[in-house]
Amino acid sequence: MRILSGKIEDRMLHIGYYQIVGGLLGLILTLRTFIYESTLSGLSLLFYVVAILLFVFSIYSGNLLRKKNIKGLYLSTWNQVLQLIQISISAFGFEYYSGVFFNIGFEWTEKFIPDFNFGLSGWILRYTENDLNHNSVYINLIPILILYYINKTRHEIEERKQLIESAEKINQE
Length: 173
Prior knowledge:
The chain crosses the membrane at residues 12-35, 41-60, 81-106, 135-151. The chain contains four helices and six strands.
């Protein structure tokens, strides 16, 4: 009996390809933006490097899943967790999406404004001393769904491992 059933392998492939495509799209869009950037400061260069590393991480995690490597489930969990919350408070902001995103949240300046957004791979890392009134919090619903399937897959793998161990124990007796 194999640890990974066909159903588990298929799920890993789907999540893996999703992360690979999302990472490649994000990488292409980031490099395109970087090429057309008119002025680069040290901080903006650092932000581009972080964004590129995040998209490469998505591709790497997805590729591990594509190769049916269980470590890919652990790394993919972290990749999805990084995409769960997008936040902007005062001078700082962080958004990262690798693949499709559908956000529900709110912005507040002088008023509390509920909002939702959807789109494809992207990122925003922001530090500014000028725009101190930009505050928002969004939750990306897509990673919640993917995390559900990752956890379900990990649970099924653990069940299969226990079943194999039990069967081996019975055969030894």
